């Protein structure tokens, strides 16, 4: 029998990393992990009590596989008990905590057969296997995968541009979901799920109210399409809960009824495992690993442990990249197939993506050409880019647009006025004639000292912004750009601690408490042990050092501990005893 005192002593002896893993695995309530409050854990006895509550034990049992449950109930090998030992439900000798034994006894329906037990009946897939065309399944899977990869890539680009913002309560709003759905070519309802997938594989994560792309996410965007597929499947598989991964392994190729298989493998885990398995099956479908509830041959390879084989299989199924795009006179660019990441980046520098997908459509505009020029490209660079990636000749309207923008862009310069007061515009007389009579700019109250100059009292950045809104090719002079100043502090939500951080903080706090106790008399630890026995009315064996130096054990049921003394009923002679804590040298459970 294992009591709270025994568990507290065992927890105290664990190394820090093992204790952190146990606390993390048991998923204690936030209030228990906090640094203050009525439920917070202050010492190892509090931790032991928190781990032995009915709710905590039930939650831990939900994470145990069938063999571990049988081993807890009937005894078993160390290998069978290992998951339970890792969760603190039993010790290394196989002794089961009495709180765990009580909860198992209260739920006899959990495991009603032998350790192995008959596996649930699996649907007969022989007919489906014989008629299923693996080539067709692979083609359908590759189509699903390419669609998902396209959405993930566009979401990463949107996050990198700072366009994916979270609500104060968490998650993204419906308007943003619709906007991102239009940008990615996906239904707005799936945008949140795809963002969650990016978070799960470590490509992006929410931080300070907006989504940030990780280094792994940037590397993924630079990778080829086959590498993207292989990488996202590998990272998704690695991030699965071990129980989910085990059930997927048991399922082999048939993902049609993972819930039944999960309830057999983890008899107590339906509360959390059902949803996790359904999510895994859905993700396997959108990643092109399974079609009609069954893994494709490519899916099996992608889920395997051979990265090179996975990349080869992905390359065989995905459509190959195209070498050229069609440049249309209406200033659209049609990609008849996937572009390489390098070509896609180059094209996005001079055009805007209008319709993502297998046959993506881009549009060249005055703004996109101006953006390319201001990013450092010259007119000849832009023409050379279109010439290189175009499968057709560069159409005349596109050449005309490039020449027009290259000629006009930057021809109006906004600089600081004399004495750093107001602004001065320099440009051609024709351009300044148009600006001076533009009704939308009348509020700037222009003055014209000469044909190539306009003056206004407004600061340069305001003038440049107003001109840009009216699509004038104005640029700020280097000396006219506003200085970057530190604004008032922005009120942000206090970042919540991750479960790992909370577990580490708890262990550090417990160790600090132990160090303080070690610096004080050992009676503090023994007093807590006795206090736990008083509350639980459990018998303990106290070893007392007698005046002659000998040691004598007393088996008592303690009733109180105060003023440096413990009082209790001696179970051997049925008398009340009062023993000084200063003479107590050891305490053991006598239950």
Describe the structure.
The structure is a single chain. Strand 15 (551-562) and strand 16 (565-570) form a beta hairpin. Helices cover 50% and strands 14% of the residues. The longest helix has 27 residues, at 134-160. With 591 residues, it is α+β, with helices and mostly antiparallel strands. The radius of gyration is 35 Å and the shape is elongated. Helix 6 packs across helix 7 and helix 10 packs across helix 12 (191-200). The chain has 27 helices and 18 strands. The N and C termini lie close together (7 Å). It folds into five domains: 4-106, no CATH class; 134-317; 326-407, no CATH class; 412-480, no CATH class; 522-589, SH3 type barrels (Roll). The chain has a five-stranded mixed β-sheet with strand order 11-12-10-9-13, with helices on one face. A five-stranded antiparallel β-sheet has the order 17-16-15-14-18.
In short:
The protein is an alpha+beta fold and 591 residues long. 50% of the residues lie in helices and 14% in strands. A 5-stranded mixed beta sheet has the order 11-12-10-9-13, covered by helices on one side. Strands 17-16-15-14-18 form a 5-stranded antiparallel beta sheet.
């Amino acid at each position: 029998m294992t009591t709270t005192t025994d568990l507290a002593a065992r927890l105290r002896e664990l190394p820090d990393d093992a204790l952190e893993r146990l606390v993390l695995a048991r998923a204690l309530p936030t209030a228990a992990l906090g640094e203050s409050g009525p439920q917070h854990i202050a010492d190892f006895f509090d931790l032991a009590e928190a781990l032995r509550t009915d709710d905590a034990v039930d939650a831990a049992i939900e994470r145990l596989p069938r063999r571990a449950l049988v081993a807890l109930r009937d005894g078993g090998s160390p290998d069978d008990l290992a998951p339970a030992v890792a969760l603190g439900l039993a010790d290394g000798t196989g002794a089961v905590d009495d709180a765990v034994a009580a909860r198992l006894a209260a739920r006899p329906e959990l495991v009603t057969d032998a350790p192995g037990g008959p596996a649930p009946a699996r649907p007969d897939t022989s007919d489906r296997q014989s008629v299923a065309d693996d080539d067709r399944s692979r083609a359908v899977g590759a189509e699903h995968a390419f669609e998902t990869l396209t959405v993930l890539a566009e979401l990463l680009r949107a996050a990198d541009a700072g366009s994916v913002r979270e609500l104060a309560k968490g998650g993204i709003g419906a308007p943003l979901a619709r906007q991102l759905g239009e940008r990615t070519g996906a239904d707005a309802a799936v945008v949140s799920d795809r963002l969650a997938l990016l978070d799960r594989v470590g490509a992006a994560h929410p931080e300070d109210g907006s989504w940030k792309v990780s280094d792994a996410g940037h590397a993924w965007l630079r990778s080829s399409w086959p590498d993207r597929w292989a990488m996202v499947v590998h990272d998704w598989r690695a991030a699965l809960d071990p129980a989910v991964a085990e059930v997927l392994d048991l399922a082999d190729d048939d993902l049609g009824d993972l819930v039944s298989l999960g309830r057999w493998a983890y008899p107590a885990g339906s509360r959390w495992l059902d949803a996790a398995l359904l999510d895994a099956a859905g993700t396997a479908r959108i990643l092109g690993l399974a079609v009609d509830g069954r893994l494709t041959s490519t899916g099996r390879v992608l889920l395997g442990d051979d990265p090179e084989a996975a990349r080869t299989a992905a390359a065989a199924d995905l459509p190959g990249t195209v070498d050229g795009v069609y440049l249309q006179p209406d200033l659209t660019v049609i990609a008849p197939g996937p572009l390489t990441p390098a070509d896609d980046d180059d094209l996005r520098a001079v055009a805007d993506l209008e319709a993502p997908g297998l046959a993506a459509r881009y549009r060249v505009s005055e703004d996109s050409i101006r953006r390319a020029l201001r990013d450092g490209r010259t007119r000849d660079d832009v023409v050379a880019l279109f010439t290189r990636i175009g499968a057709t000749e560069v159409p005349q309207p596109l050449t005309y647009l490039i020449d027009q923008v290259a000629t006009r862009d930057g021809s109006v310069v906004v600089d600081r006025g004399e004495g750093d007061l107001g602004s001065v515009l320099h440009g051609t007389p024709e351009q300044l004639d148009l600006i001076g009579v533009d009704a939308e700019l009348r509020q700037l109250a222009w003055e014209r000292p000469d044909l190539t100059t306009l003056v206004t009292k407004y600061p340069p950045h305001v003038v440049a912004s107003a001109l840009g809104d009216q699509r004038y090719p104005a640029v700020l002079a280097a000396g006219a750009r506003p200085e970057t100043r530190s604004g008032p502090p922005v009120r942000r939500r206090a970042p919540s601690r991750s479960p790992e951080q909370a577990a580490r903080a708890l262990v550090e706090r417990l160790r600090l408490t132990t160090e303080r106790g070690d610096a004080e008399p050992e009676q503090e630890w023994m007093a807590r042990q006795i206090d736990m026995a008083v509350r639980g009315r459990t018998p303990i064996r106290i070893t007392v050092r007698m005046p002659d130096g000998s040691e004598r054990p007393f088996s008592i049921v303690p009733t109180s501990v105060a003023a440096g003394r413990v009082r209790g009923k001696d179970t051997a002679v049925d008398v009340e005893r009062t023993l000084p804590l200063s003479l107590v040298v050891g305490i053991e459970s006598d239950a």
